[in-house]
């Protein structure tokens, strides 16, 4: 169990401490459940009414709430960001592997830097380069010529295909597949002819990818994931997709081939993005968004029909099917009114 003094918390968060610098904390807790030895935070001002009764050893708040806290207070610019940093410092999650397991199968010419760990039954093929402190979990497969940057961690059963390049300080969760073939075929008189996928996948630094996600290799050029991107679980990123710096994508999203997503975008869960389109920087797509054409301007975009009682939904669906007919009738009425006005 990690233990930090309040002085250390102030250093980690860049905050200003009011109280006992030597008091100790061991975990982060919600405000209403926090006890002695815990650190908590206030990110939503509507919960400020609970500060006076909070029993945490220290509370992280903005300056405006400092006087409402009964004990030790750490004033920070953004309590939620401070929570993230402190939670990292107190985290007890074990590493995916420690040391190099005797059951790992490692080609003779693999370049293994200092501090690398490789778990049981992992397979590392010829020409792979593993930089300092890379951690490869149990059962992973790293294909020929792949490169993995310093401090990157792969949890169990991740498959990295040949020639894939992954940057430093990345985290890839269990059962994810990076570099599988894109969905490329030609059709000759009803018979499918596979198009070899000759590109690869290049992933930047500080990228996190959730479990059971697939990122396909490019057909001719590469699939690109820039730095500081976060990708959730169970997602499909097709061949030649390019995802810009700092973009966040929630679970279940599907991105079709050759789509470009800009910087600092936020894509809600279960969204679907058509292929060969471009999404501008700073676009937010709410959950279950269906994006069929390019988005040229920053902003928030939504689609779909919110949940309704079935009886109402059936009426709505029936009306949607009649929209074309209703539009024709409306245009006819407008034309008739224009004719009457001109008469």
TrEMBL record:
GO biological process: lipid A biosynthetic process
Keywords (A to Z) from UniProt: Acyltransferase, Lipid A biosynthesis, Lipid biosynthesis, Lipid metabolism, Repeat, Transferase
HAMAP family according to UniProt: LpxD (MF_00523)
Full protein name: UDP-3-O-acylglucosamine N-acyltransferase
Signal peptide as annotated in the record: none
Protein's pathway: Bacterial outer membrane biogenesis; LPS lipid A biosynthesis
PROSITE patterns listed in its UniProt record: HEXAPEP_TRANSFERASES
Family according to the record: Belongs to the transferase hexapeptide repeat family. LpxD subfamily.
CDD domains: LbH_LpxD
SUPFAM superfamilies for the chain: Trimeric LpxA-like enzymes (SSF51161)
UniProt-listed Enzyme Commission number(s): 2.3.1.191
Species per Swiss-Prot/TrEMBL record: Vibrio tetraodonis subsp. pristinus
Subunit structure: Homotrimer.
Domain of life: Bacteria
Gene: lpxD
Active-site residues, Swiss-Prot/TrEMBL: 239
Domain UDP-3-O-[3-hydroxymyristoyl] glucosamine N-acyltransferase non-repeat region: residue ranges: 24-88
